[in-house]
Amino acid sequence: MQHPGYGMTLASRPISAPLRRGDIIAFDFPRDPTQQYLKRVVGLPGDKVQYRERQLFVNGGATRVRPLDAYFEPDRLEAMARFENSLDGVRFDTLLNETDPGAGERLVREHGCVYEHLVQTCEVPPGHYFVMGDNRDNSYDSRFWGFVRAGHVLGKVVRIMQ
Question: Where is the Peptidase S26 domain positioned along the sequence (predicted)?
Fold first, then answer.
């Protein structure tokens, strides 16, 4: 499969292990299945995912562990806040653009999600996943277009080469 945004070919194999929170997956984009996306799984079927005050909570638990040194975005010539996160033992960093305090407020209000008082809460339906990008303010993800059907998952990302 050719990933249009990254100019690389992704190998696809049947998923031999269940998906876990924290996995990065390749999937057919729900709004245009001719495009493939890569995102991090943050919600499994039955999970309650909540995004409030620009932080992610899964089943009531915060995923953010601690702040880290800022990340300098060379393309934009600006620093972004960086945080260490953990989901089911998988550690990863996320970025926030603190110069755009309203960035996290542009969220979907459909697909079984409830949006009240700047808080988005979604219960992940059976056979679906809730995915997010790690650059939270610059990611078109489940907060905007809803869930990824299990049948659209192409595979897990098992290695990233620099």
Answer: 17-158
